[in-house]
Amino acid sequence: MKVDIEMGAAAPGKPAMLDLEELLATRLLVQGNSGSGKSHLLRRLLEQSAPWVQQCVVDPEGDFVTLADRFGHVVVDAQRTEAELTRIAGRIRQHRVSVVLNLEGLDVEQQMRAAAAFLGGMFDAERDFWYPVLVVVDEAQLFAPAAAGEVSDEARKLSLGAMTNLMCRGRKRGLAGVIATQRLAKLAKNVAAEASNFLMGRTFLDIDMARAADLLGMDRRQAEMFRDLARGRFVALGPALSRRPLPVTIGNVETSARSLSPKLTPLPETPEDARDLIFTPGPEEPRAPARRTPPPPMPTAELIAQLSRPAPAPEKPAQPVFDIIDEAEREAGIDTVMREILDDPDAAFRTDAVLYQDFLVRCRIRRVPGEPPALPAFRRKLAVARAGVEGDASHGDTWQAALKLSEDVAEDLQGVFLLVARAAVAGEPCPSDAVLARAYGSHSPRRARRLLAFFEERGLLVVRIDFHGHRVLAFPDLGCETAPGDPDAPDAASPAQDVAE
Question: Where does the record place the Helicase HerA central domain (predicted)?
Fold first, then answer.
């Protein structure tokens, strides 16, 4: 159905008509500085099309709420939660009610979030409710800014995404965007570019005049005409308006905005008690708190004396909330648990992760106080425990040097290194390949020999074979060596020998 609405006069005696059905398919962009008649144009469009199509007005200043008295629009106060606004928008599309979303009283970021939630609810309505809706957004540069401003990035992305959906993807859902802005340069280009109809009003900045001329297909030299447009006069172009740029004078409206342009009125006579009227608060005005008088400045000598005084003695610490942990008791409990783990013959062939889980369980069973050591600290303790140094030897300088030297060895090799280092410190025979393999968690004597070769390549020890075929391990950095030992001797802790790899 073709419906033409009269927007005003295009020439003397010739009306300016707008094809409403074409507008629903091609969208509209209105541009004009403050005072150019932009809101008047939107009001004319809304009043003329109210009987023919459902309308939704996003009103940041509350100027369009007067449509409710004359045309039955429902005013939706935006001071609600975003989820509630989304649900309301869905019901609006379902019941086909014309509304005005009143954003008055909210700051800019709250307005952006509320508009995004409301437009998102209309956009996400079920397919059965995709009826035609004229969605008018006044001051669109607030909701689709071209650059980041003082609002948060999240609010800007939500609002810009909702406006982009309205202008780019709204047509298939029956949403026809009509956006109005004071400045084209402040409006996101991907939002403005989706409009096919334009009504350009008065503007003064060169960048805005140039963009308006480009959108209307006019020469840059003709852009100066936008400075001379009177209030309520626009240049129209688009399939719903005119195929060529057409000057239009917007017609009268039936309703008016709550906020009108200020008019000059004579000043009243100055009353004789004007001074009392200004400086005496009224009975209902809140009383301002009394201004505190700043203290007098402190003399320099007194200030230096205060700075020279000794600091007060620290207060005694308060009684701790938790019981103080006896570190000696804690270490003794951990050592006991480590010995229990190592006494298990199968422990040598379990991974550190498995042993650590067993360690944590045993610590809880024995009520070891405090936090258990982390996995890296547990590996270090396990390597030292496997070496088997006890008593006074564990505090000797040579053994401490061996512990320091082992820190440069990989975690999985520290146990084997400390085992042979302990034998050297104590002057005991060199451990056999089977013993070294078990310390490494393997059944392969050949792997044990490769470990000794690796230590020798790193310069940690020197392997020497005596005249009887026994092996001696010398540690140059420790100044000690093991006694000769048979490398092929069986492991007493593991009688059953497996075949080497």
Answer: 13-109
The residue type of 476 is P
Is 71's pLDDT higher than 70? Answer: yes
Instruction: Quote the CA–CA distance of 31 and 43 in Å, as a whole number.
Output: 14
Following CA atoms 239, 241, 246, 250 in sequence, which dihedral angle do they give, to the nearest 10 degrees? -160
Q: What is the rounded CA–CA span in Å between residue 160 and residue 12?
A: 41
What does the alpha-carbon distance between residue 317 and residue 320 come to, in Å, rounded to a whole number? 8
* DSSP of 185-231: GGB-HHHHTT--EEEE-----HHHHHHHHHHTT--GGGGGGGGGPPT
Radius of gyration of the chain (CA): 44
User: Does the pTM of the predicted model rise above 0.70?
Assistant: no
Structure-block tokens of residue 35: 């005072």
What average pLDDT does the structure give for the chain?
83
Which pLDDT belongs to residue 496?
Answer: 45
CA dihedral in degrees (349, 355, 361, 367; nearest 10)? Answer: 110
Predicted pLDDT at 12? 77
Share of the chain above pLDDT 70, in %: 91
Tokens of 293: 């008088």
Are 10 and 248 spatial neighbours (Cβ–Cβ below 8 Å)? yes
Structural domains for the chain: 4-250 (3.40.50.300), 408-501 (1.10.10)
Specify the DSSP class assigned to residue 485: B
Partners of 100 in the beta sheet?
A: 57, 75
Q: How confident is the model at residue 163, as a pLDDT?
A: 92
Question: Phi and psi dihedrals of 59, rounded to 5?
Answer: -115, 100
Edge-to-edge strand order for the sheet containing 4-11? 14-19, 4-11, 242-250, 233-238, 197-200, 28-31, 175-181, 133-137, 54-59, 99-102, 74-77
Whole-angstrom distance, CA of residue 178 vs CA of residue 32: 14
First to last CA, the chain: 90
- Per-residue pLDDT reduced to its tens digit, 234-287: 988 899 998 888 889 999 999 887 766 667 778 777 777 777 777 777 777 766
Of residues 289 and 339, more confidently modeled: 339
What is the mean predicted confidence (pLDDT) over 84-107? 92
Cα-based torsion angle of the residue sequence 394, 399, 400, 405 in order, rounded to the nearest 10 degrees: -140
What b/e string do you get for 204-224 counting C-beta neighbours within 10 Å, with b at 16 or more? eeeebbebbbebbebeeeebe
